Amino acid sequence: RFMVKGRTRNSQLAAYFFSTTRSHPRSFVGSPGEGRAVIRMAAMDPTLPLVKNLLLLDSEGKRIAVKYYTPEWSTVASQASFEKALWNKTSRTNARAEAEIIMFDNVVVVYKYIGDLMFYVTGNQDENELILYNVLQAFYESVTILLRQQVEKKTVLENLDLVLLAIDEIVDGGIILETEPAVIASRVTMRGADGEQAPVPITEQTFSKALASAKEHLARSLLK
């Protein structure tokens, strides 16, 4: 459930979400080359749902992990200004029990607070709010799984590699790839050094092994 302009939306609207995205599956499984092909296809299909950014801020509005996918915020200064203004707008609202949605700076913002962290997802003014909510839910629930329910600033900073990899599993270039939290968490922790899926499921991995695997994958990705 989440609040939309003072009204409560719940899971009964899930059917609407699926009907609007039937021609654009929420989950994409394939090689990196296929992923780039999906992104190129999106440029030719303006109806494909797009995410402008994913933000994870602390309780003071300071950035912890962010990803921007559109050119409105092309500089670090413009990003910092947007993040600060957004935090000022939302910091006094109650978005803990339920996520909330607002219009801010010509974008739709869906957000939720967990502990001392603030999770945000933004999209175009005419974007389907339920799609953005699904992305937000995938964001904070996959992080919750990866951090073994310890969703707080200290734990996130200690395991930032896992959080960044989770973001990349959810959205790539603004295109929504996956919104199932368990699937996202498994893909992050099961990445081997060569990018192949490891045979050990997330439930059987130790946290240290999962973190080591994620760090190795992230390091190799940055070197490519």
TrEMBL record:
Limits of the AP complex mu/sigma subunit domain: 51-192
Membrane protein topology class: Peripheral membrane protein
A GO CC term assigned to this protein in UniProt: Golgi membrane
Biological processes annotated in GO: intra-Golgi vesicle-mediated transport; intracellular protein transport; retrograde vesicle-mediated transport, Golgi to endoplasmic reticulum
Gene3D superfamilies linked: 3.30.450.60
SUPFAM superfamilies: SNARE-like
Domain of life, per lineage: Eukaryota
Protein name listed in UniProt: Coatomer subunit zeta
Source organism of the structure: Volvox reticuliferus
